[in-house]
Amino acid sequence: MLYFKHITKYDIGWIYEYSYVLAIRQHKMTTKNLTYIIILISIIGCSKTNEKTRLKNNLYERNLIGKIKSVKSELFEYYIKDDSLIIGKKMNSYSSDRNETLEFNELGLITSKIEFYSNNKVSNEKEYLYDDNNRLQEITEIDHYGKKSIISDKFYYNQNDSLVRIEYRNDDFERIMLIERNEKNQFIKRTDKVKDTVQMTFTFQYDNNGNIIKENSYLKSDIPAKLITRKFKNNHVKFEDIIQFYEYDTVKHQNIFEYDKEQRVSKSKSYFENENSYILTINSYHNNSKLKEQMWKPIGAVKYFISIRKWDIKGNLIEHSREDNETGEKDIWNYKYKFDKVGNWITKENYKDDKPSKTIIKREIKYYD
User: Fold this and answer.
1) How many CA atoms lie within 13 A of 125 on its CB side?
2) pTM of the model
């Protein structure tokens, strides 16, 4: 993520954290099963009219507090014996829990990320470089698991500190992403090229309030892949009409959003085709607007699970449950934390149905003086 002051509100949502894979239309005139890898960075938008917006950096993203220098996370087996917690051998990473070391500069921007196996052998490492204006300049990644490929992303900006070009290289492969902006510095087009040949094109249209009302993606320059039209009310999106093109079919659906009095999304209907076919999501929030509970339920499916997640007021996941709609059987995973004096958790114990589920995560956090 870039330092907050360098980003405009028009970049929100269109440039993503490190890798995002977009599966696009398979067209009979193109190579089948083509998958486009789009390597971009995460950007949070700001506006001069919103002075109360909190500064966000990579520490904030990871729900970390204070001036942190580094965070080392390690996974261990554990079990209960004679009412005592026994910590066993180190485990390899799984799910979202990783054996990793993160390092940050004094602005809270990440400078390196190293993942490793239970035997401490490095599996992947990334280095983040910034220029004198604290703008992300390059990400270099080494994949130690495979053939030790070196992947690099370089970022270029205009006079308004907004992205205009991204170069992605992986061994002998290179992709160039060119970003066009209008006189308001709004992101209106992105063209992806490989060897000077256009692979994908993305276009964006705005209303008078700076909301993106049309977002279209095309194979090459003009073959539709995905078309999105948005309707806003009070600068909040009410619904999205989406047309997705595939080789043998065209799929149309909507995303519909409802908001609470604090203008937070309280309910959404995704992949909405009719009142008998959609995914229902219901949210509730803590007083500090952090997500408190989220329920996810497919409407119209024959076989499905109802999923509920709960977070504490600090934003830490404390419970995840999943209920089978046919049998009524319910699995519940709980997460218990211990915190340091600053308020960051340093141990996370995983439970299933109130019994230890084999994994405990320990974190060593170092702070700047």
Assistant:
1) 13
2) 0.80
Q: Is the dihedral of CA 143, 144, 145, 150 positive or negative?
A: positive
- Residue partners of 209: CB distance under 8 A and separation at least 6: 232, 235
Q: Which tokens in the block code for residue 24?
A: 């696009």
CB 99 within 8 A of CB 118: yes
What does the alpha-carbon distance between residue 17 and residue 19 come to, in Å, rounded to a whole number? 6
Q: Closest by alpha carbon to 201, among 212, 191, 210, 211? A: 191
- What are the structure tokens assigned to 116, written together? 């490793």
The answer to whether the beta carbons of residues 367 and 342 sit under 8 Å apart is yes
CA-based nearest residue to 142, from 152, 133, 134: 152
Helix (H) or strand (E) holding 293: strand 291-299
Mean pLDDT (10-residue bins), the chain, 369 residues: 34 33 29 29 30 59 93 90 82 86 95 94 94 93 81 93 93 93 94 95 95 96 95 94 93 96 95 94 96 95 93 94 92 94 94 83 96
